[in-house]
Every structure is written in C-alpha cells, then in structure tokens.
Amino acid sequence: MRLLLVVVVTMVMVQGDVYLQGPRGSNNRLNEQGRERNNGNRMFDSQNNNRGGYNQGNLYYYTGSTVQIEWTNQHSCGNANNHCELVIQYMCGKNVRDGTTTNTIPDRQRNCDKNDCDTDMEFGMHEDFWYYKNCKRRQRNKGLYTADQNMKEDATSTRQNNGGTRRGYECPEERDHYPYWHPTHWRDIVVFTNDPKRCEWYKAESQNVKNKGYCKYPDNYLQFKYEKDENLNNIWLMNNREACEAQEIAHGGELLHPEWVEEGAWDMPPPDCLPSAWSRDNHHGNTYDGFMNSYNWTVPDTAHDNCVLRLRYNITSGEMSDGGFDPEINASLNAEENNAPTGIDVATIHGLEKDNDRGYQFRQNPQNVKVFNIQGQGSNVALDLALALNTNQYGRTFEDRTHVFEIRERPESIPADAKIHNLNVRGKRGNIVQTYPGVEYDYQPNRLEAEVGDYVHIQWTGANSNPQNNAGQGRAGTDRNNIALLREITYPKEGAWEDEAHGCFACNYPGLISNTTNLLGLSWEEQMMLAYHTNKGSFYGDVEELDDTATYFDLGPKRMTQAGIWRFMCTRNNNFTNRSQKGEIRVVPSGETAA
C-alpha cells in the first residue's frame, strides 16, 4: 500500500546547516562553556555543525503577540540552485523541558527517576517516551525511495539515518518527511516552498486541519508488553489500514484485531504558505533586503508553560524530478543491492541511454564518470572523473529547535484586539569568528514597526556560560544587554520622518537622559530600567558594564502613545569597528501601514 509521500531530498553537501537565530536556537546545546556542543544526540537530529546554537535562556510571549522568527540556512533557497522547502512548527506539553544535563534521555524507564522518563526533570525532552517507542516498533513506510541504503524494518530507519540512531525521543521517519502520515505532537506555523503551487496541498494535508491515520491497539498494550520485555521483541505496529485490520494480537488472554483510526487534527487554521525567500549558496547571511530570513509569527491564543519551536530545512538537487515531489520517485527506484546504481535517471537528460558505460548512473561515489569522450582526428581520449555523491545525503533534512518558552495570557489591561510586538535580543558573546555559525549581539527585530496604540514588549535573555576567552566587554563568558537612546542626529537629512527622529545611527554615544528625554514616551524611571538593566528582582552593583545585573530582563509591554522614530544602542556591546548593537523602533499614526 503506497501512503501519501513527500520524499524530501537534498544536496550532496555535508554541511547544509540551518540555525534559528531568534528566538534562540539550541542546536542541542544546554549550558556548555566550550565552543562545541557536548552532545549532538541530546534532543533531536540537527545535522548541524557542533559550534552552532545558543546556551539556554528562556522567555515568555503573550497570546496574540507577534514574534519575529529569524534563521540562517547555509544553502540557497528561492533560486534555481536547488529546490528548498522550509517548515516551522511548535509544540507544547506539560513535560516539555530543557533539562539540566547534556546527556541523552534514556530509552529504558528503569534508568530514570521513579521509573518514569517522561517526568525525570534531569533530562531534556520534547517528544515523549511512548511516542518514541511507538515509532521504534512501527513498521517503516516501505513505499519511500531509500536509494541503496541498508534499511532496518522500523520507522527509526530512514535513508538519512538508516541505522536508526536515537536522538532524544524524536521519530526519524517523521523528522525526515513532511507532511507526515501519522499523528505527531507538532502544530504547523508556516511552510516556505520554491513552488507555491503546492501551498493548497500543504494546507490541506496539515495536521492543523486534517486527521491522521494510525493503528490503534488496546489501551496500554505497549506498556504491558514493555513490562515483560524492554526491547519489545516481536512486537510490530502496523502503518496502514489493510495491515492493521488484518493483524491478530494476543492481549489479556484474548486474540484481538487492532483498529485503524484517523484522528489528531488540531482544529486550528492551516499553516501559512509562502514562496521561499532568496538566499545564496555556502553562506549564513542575509537576504536581498540586508536582513536575515524571517517570519512574523502570531502567538496562538492558548496559554501554556512549556513550548518549543522547530525549524526544518529541506533542499533538493536537480537530479530529483519536480523537486523530489514526482510520485515516480519511490521504492521502485531503490538499488537492488548495496553499491549498485539506483533507478534515478541522470543519463537521458544528457542524451545517453539509461544503462550506459559513461558512469552516468545515480550511485554512491561514482569513480568513473566519463565527462569527455573525444574521438577522431587521431585522438581517442576518454577522461574519467570521480564524484563525491553520498546517496543518503541526496535527501537530507536539517533542523534546529529553540529552548523552552512560555505562552502567557495577556494582562487584562491590554485589550484583546491590541497588537503586542516583541522586542528581544539575539546573538551571544564573542567576535564574528567565535560566535559563528551563531551571530554577535543585535536587537531582534533590528527594525521594529508599530502603530500608535500598539504595545511593545521589551525582554531579553542570555547565559553566563559562554567560552571564557570569547571577545567582549565586562565579565568574561557573560551575556548582558541594555537599551540607551542614541545621541541626537548631528547632521539632519532632508526627507520624511527626520523631524520626529530621535537618535543618530552613525553615532556611538548615548544621549543624556533627563526627566524630559523622549524614548518611546517611556517615563524617566523606565528609561533608567532599560539603561541599567534594573527591574523587579535586579539590584544595583557593578553596573558600568552591567556585570552585576542578570542575564534576563523584562520591561513588560508598554503602549506606544506617539508617532516617531527612536534609535538606540547597547552601551556594553557596541565596540566600534568590532561589533554594533543598535536598533530602531518606528511608530506610525494609528491606521497607517508602517513603511
């Protein structure tokens, strides 16, 4: 039985990484003091460089507020160099957590506190124990193209991870394919695609709106079997209706047939679907407009203490017809044996027979590709070239996830229809080389646009566990931030807004704060809180470089009462010629669209 498939295939490059820059992507980090993460298998399969990610720092967002999600991807999107799909999702759960150790959560209950890994707070966890066990004992989708990989039988084995290596409780088959055909914990936010014609299909197949099928076994069936055999040997869960309804199992002294059910739709709007934004190859940087790839997420209306964002980045080479979506790319093209060519056709597009002696066959690391075949005029030259082609990477997914954040009900004092914009900080301590593939400090978003009557929620976090030798001001290893209005513009330029502009982007001194200083209409006391990083729970001490302040700051949402432009800086992280941390908030009259 052929299930609904999306064969996600990618380029051959080993490092095609993707990183969430804001909110802070973990890349499986927790609080390591080295540049490399300790354990790339801690929570999920990122496939990213060990130096990526930010140490733990947690924030909260109000329901209905706007969070700008920013990321960098190493290979291109939105151009002809490859086919790119990018999916952003979130999940919440009472036991979702960052944990306190970089060790991977055990896959045996007896190795966890009180024999319950789901509630052992020492270990980080997103997906839960029984979700993974279900994946481990469920037959994999054998209709998928797996090239020449030596596959296992269960859903932990994919072309990209044929050995079924475990990363937290993530299910590898679900990770590598979207939209997935069984229920998951994840809710869809947005899909970016090189081919917007697929958007209606993506929306219709999203679990936001569509039930997903699975084989339902008696209550606690797996748990009962697990108590007798931790390995669940000889226990197989079916992955399609026909096999499910034909299966006969022994349980509770009876022979039973499981039931195929379809459920799990989140009963929420379908995901947004947009054309992939342009980015270039071999580069973690900005798009055409000079800013990172980004998406403005409206936080859902359901509050929850423990949530996490996930971003997956899929890139497909031109050898895969229709960007890998061609239904003919399926198990029928798999190699008949190891080290044999697959059925992917790379010959006829060059005018060759599919079975040829020129080496134009899609296989692992072809060594004798005859690019030139020059004959005549006394010449008979056949030149061979070797290609670095890893068949498990021509079909590759990269991933990053945030640390845990909270979704809170908005205060009663803020109307339900009022817009709340989140202003945070991205980056970590260090120079551009030391932070890579992360970034140096900056406000996030760097340019925030709002209307009079909107609210801006200023909040940031950081860590005290950065590498001790990373460049920066103040106490080594620490993240600190503040906001101070930049000095007034020295040489005003002609044009709109300059009369209302406060702060000079080209300058590097803060303005003098007095009881008449205008920064977003905030009070003198609130401006002091921003500049000296002082609020409830904070205290004064060594404040010149903010050393005795905390990594976390929360001003709370403030209503914008007047139009204008305000430009500001961080006095600690603005070392001219080395790094610049400056931002801008532009407020337009109510009812006008921010430019």
How does this structure look, described?
The protein is mainly β and 595 residues long. It is 8% helix and 24% strand. It contains 7 helices and 25 strands. It has helices at residues 129-137, 172-176, 199-205, 221-228, 241-246, 432-435, 524-532; strands spanning 18-22, 60-62, 66-73, 83-92, 187-193, 212-216, 249-251, 254-256, 259-263, 272-275, 293-298, 304-316, 369-376, 379-385, 396-401, 405-408, 420-426, 442-444, 447-451, 455-460, 484-485, 501-502, 553-559, 564-569, 582-588. Strands 2, 4, 5, 10, 12, 15 and 16 form a 7-stranded mixed sheet that branches. Strands 19, 21, 22, 24 and 25 form a 5-stranded mixed sheet that branches. Strand 7 (249-251) and strand 8 form a beta hairpin. The protein is globular and about 75 Å long. 43% of the residues are buried. The model is unreliable at 1-15 (pLDDT under 50).
Distance between the termini: 52 Å
Q: Give the helix level as a range of percent.
A: under 10%
Would you identify the regions where 5 or more consecutive residues have pLDDT less than 50?
1-15
User: How does the overall form come out from the CA principal axes?
Assistant: globular
E-strand count: 25
Strand content: 15-25%
Biggest sheet overview: 7 strands, mixed
Q: What is the helix tally?
A: 7
What multimeric state do the chains show? single chain
Radius of gyration based on Cα positions = 27 Å
- Given the helix and strand composition, which structural class is it? mainly beta
Give the averaged pLDDT, no decimals: 89
